[in-house]
Amino acid sequence: MNLQELQNFYSGKKVLLTGHTGFKGSWMLTLLHYLGADIKGYALEAPDASLYNSIQGHKLCQSVIADIRDKASLHKVVLDFEPEIIFHMAAQPLVLEAYEQPAYTYEVNAMGTVYVLEALQALKGRCSLINITTDKVYDNKEWIYPYRENDPLGGYDPYSASKACSELISASFRNSFFNPSQYAQHLKSVATVRAGNVIGGGDWADKRIIPDIVRAISRQEEVVLRNPAAVRPWQHVLEAVYGYLLLACRMDSNPEALAQAFNFGPLYDEAVSVEQLVQLSIDAWGQGSYSVQQSAQQPHEAKLLRLDCSKAVDELKWKPRWNATAAIQQTMHWYKSVVADQQPAIKVTIEQIDAYLTQD
Q1: How far is Cα 38 from Cα 58, in angstroms, rounded to an integer?
Q2: Predicted confidence band at 230 (pLDDT cuts at 50, 70, 90)?
Q3: What is the pLDDT, as a whole number, of residue 232?
Q4: Which single residue of 197, 203, 298, 314 could bond 232 by disulfide (Cβ 3.0 to 4.6 Å)?
Q5: How many whole angstroms from its chain centre is CA 182?
């Protein structure tokens, strides 16, 4: 789908975006604003060091600062705004933080999904909902085969399991209350999307590899790697959020058939290890070094994870535009432009959105 078609669809469209103050949410917010959507955001307040504050995200939408666990507040926002599309991104998104706060992680990621879906149930008009989960929802055997949407869900750690719960909750509500065979009665279409590890400018979260690289290089320190051999389906954040936007477009014209799960990730041979990612990042920045410090006491994290994205390619006509190297180069260009060269974050973000959407 080209830029003009996207603008034609989203211009004036009422979109509710939960989690709009987060890293991925801020990219989605900027992209939706770029396309002319009428956006209402619902999320916790962004930390001082965040992409949302850097781009002055409150100027791009009607922003509601509230907790996804506040059922009454969430329902009021949904019923007052009457969105045509809901992108549910609000989450506790960090694997290591979930080990420290498992109950909170389950409350946000599982019960938060319940409250969003109950609000959708109360909505009278036509609406498509896309629940953004993660590639970590699969029962990961750490084999070489990429996971398909019909593979078993699981979750070794609290974060992964909480997101698998979110998937099961979505499927249960879809079967029970938003069954595609009865679409004419309820007018709701519910899909879920499972993206690989996204990277991009403006992520400042603790214990995440790209922010750790940027902080280390900026301080002229070594980047410390915990799991150098771990392989992830790294992709630029724009690959994922464009996929979500494209899915919502397709659901508008085919809501019954597309109420299902979709993977979004790089091509099979594009998955790279953490160590390769760090070396490519250092090369793109032009300086830096790293060391490996592995510990037997560190929490479990999967060593290998790949996605099969052929379903999105075949049914949505989606395909990655930037390979892993390009994604890393674009990411480091953002940080270097904003951190080292002091360019406005919104300017660099929009330039990258424009470059991505206009690329053949």
Answers
A1: 13
A2: confident
A3: 77
A4: 197
A5: 29
Q: Are 146 and 93 in contact (CB under 8 A)?
A: no
Give the whole-angstrom CA distance, residue 57 versus residue 79.
Answer: 23
Strands 223-225 and 127-132: unpaired
For residues 137 and 135, give the distance between their C-alpha atoms in angstroms, rounded to a whole number.
6
pLDDT given for residue 268 in this prediction: 64
Token representation of residue 2? 């080209």
Taking alpha carbons only, the member of 198, 218, 205 closest to residue 47 is: 205
- 3 state SS for 50-109: CHHHHCCHHHCCEEEECCCCCHHHHHHHHHHHCCCEEEECCCCCCHHHHHHCHHHHHHHH
Are 18 and 89 within 8 A, CB to CB? yes
Q: How many CB atoms lie within 10 A of CB 102?
A: 16
Q: What is the pLDDT of residues 67-103, one digit of tens each?
A: 999 999 999 999 999 999 999 999 999 999 999 999 9
Q: How many CB atoms lie within 10 A of CB 204?
A: 19
Nearest to 39 by CA among 192, 245, 230: 245
The dihedrals phi and psi of 305, each to the nearest 5 degrees, come to -155, 125
CB atoms closer than 10 angstroms to residue 233: 25
Residue 303 has what pLDDT? Answer: 63
Structure tokens at 336: 């270097």
The pLDDT tens digits of the residues spanning 214-224 come to: 999 999 999 99
Q: How many helices (H) and strands (E) does the chain have?
A: 15, 13
Amino acid at 318: W
Cβ neighbours of residue 335 closer than 8 Å, sequence gap 6 or more: 201, 214, 285
* Residue 60 · residue 349 · CB < 8 Å: no
Residues 6+ apart with CB under 8 A from 340: 218
Nearest Cα to Cα of residue 187 among 124, 117, 261: 124
**Residues in the chain, how many?**
360
